Amino acid sequence: MRIKAKIYSAVCLAALxxxxxxxxxxxVPHKKTPEISGAAKLSKLKLAVxxxxxxxxAIQAYYDTFLEVKPGHEKELASQIRAWSVRFPSGYYFPAYxxxxxxxxxxxxDPAALEKLKKAVEAAPDSLNRHQAYIEAIGPDNxxxxxxxxxxxxxxxxxxxxxxxxxxxYIDKESPKARxxxxxxxxxxxxFAPAWYGLWVDDLRWGNFEEGWEYLRKAIAADPxxxxxxxxxxxxxxxxxxxKFADLSFKIxxxxxxxxxxxxxxxxxxxxxGTTQLRIKCYQMLHDDFPKEKTEAYMSSYFDVLLAxxxxxxxxxxxxxxxxxxxxxxxxxTQAESFIQGKKLMDQNQPxxxxxxxxxxxxxxxxxxxxxxxxxxxxxxxxxxxxxxxAYDMLMRVFVKDPSPxxxxxxYAYGAKSGKNDAAVKTDIYAELNADAKAATPFSLKKYxxxxxxxxxxxxxxxxxxxxxxxxxxxxxxxxxxxxxxxKQYKSRPLAYxxxxxxxxxxxxxxxxxxxxxxxxTPLAELKGRDKGNLDNQGSAPTNFLxxxxxxxxxxDFSIHxxxxxxxxxxxxxxxxxxxxxxxxxx
Length: 587
What we know:
Blueprint: H1 7-14, H2 21-25, H3 38-51, H4 56-69, H5 74-87, H6 94-105, H7 111-123, H8 128-138, H9 144-155, H10 161-172, H11 178-188, H12 193-206, H13 209-222, H14 227-235, H15 242-255, H16 260-272, H17 276-289, H18 292-309, H19 311-321, H20 326-347, H21 351-358, H22 369-384, H23 388-399, H24 405-417, H25 422-436, E1 438-439, E2 444-446, E3 453-455, E4 463-469, H26 474-487, E5 495-501, H27 507-517, E6 522-525, E7 543-547, E8 552-556, H28 565-576, H29 580-583
Parallel strand pairs: 4-5, 5-6
Antiparallel strand pairs: 1-8, 2-3, 4-7, 7-8
């Protein structure tokens, strides 16, 4: 799985990822390799990894191809990945892949080795580490594991760890098999907090949010000193009850001021709140109340917010943080000073000079809020030079990719200065949208609810919001409430909302999730190996597309959250209210 779109979304949604990295990485794109020998494939893919150690696609392709070409040599695979992790210490993905490979390398069919592990478990039945070693040796997908653990549960009926160990293996694999073993664990020991927590994780995948919250409350009651449970409880309300999300996050900061979760709660709330005021409040608390060495990573996000809202304060923060990290913050200080200088020159009626300064600003990759602010400043400076149409054109190019209320207001204002009335601006917008529109590649996929299949042609005459997802995908689940907030405003309009599940192993979750969560999307099953064409999610989720009534892709590569629900609404409105001549256009 790949978390997409703006850094804002990455920060927000990553905090809700409950799945293990192994499952996440299982969803990354698989690049096709030429029909050559296995050894040649591996050699070519090895060179690709070493040329770009942070190319997750190349690493995944090497991993999959190795297992295909050299089955039974998992220890060699682990050794290769371990060597890469040493050679490329900044390689982000190697630790996760090494963990996966090590688990595979631990698998064995040697009766003596398995018996030794079994005896170690029997000698200490409440040792989770010993259970995990035993389960990994057998393999959690091996049907024999259930038989072996049924025997252990009979031998040690008072041990909650035994059913929990098997349940945790299934939870980590996002398998529906976990639930009965978790329930067995809390039946044996109602104070066993990790099992209550596991039931909450499982309930997220079934869509049972209310029941899941009750399980989390039981985990908290069983272990009230554990701030992680309270953090998960707070973050689980993001998108579903924003006020409760905020209240509980502040409570964690008050109750556990010395815990990492106090910092994480404020940082997550700051990133995922819907207002600048709340965002600044959270970041300022992190700045004022916690050691700088623990909050430095959040300060660059705070800088981004301030750069858009208050460049002078952004400069103050950069000057302060430069003493902590001179390399990064020197660049950020320059950004803030350029913002301030550019605005000052505009106030002094020197727009050309201001524009020269603003054009030199290179925002950091993670910049989310200051990006639009910089664009608006550039457009304003351009307009002040008298080139109203250039300002208009500058905003138009961005607006048709990611419309927002702020861009819309400025676009129409500069359009008026260019001699265009509102109708002419709308004509230009639809001309731009039409120019980039592409007929979506047809699909015909099995319905989870009802008989038969659903095809792209079935949605002709409707705007189609299409998302790729799977029940274990935390970012997908986090985005869905915001989709729903927008979609429910169009109950009487021709709008369809469809979700394609990309992980068939989680089919058992899909219908219960749909029915219990209250989300109104139509779930469809992915078909392995189909030609997705320009509706290709590259194996990742969430990946979103918005199609017009003629089945053309108009918007793509976007994510929706508390801050930008209005963006999705504007996209949908543009398509639902499109003029007749736009609707007749072909691509």
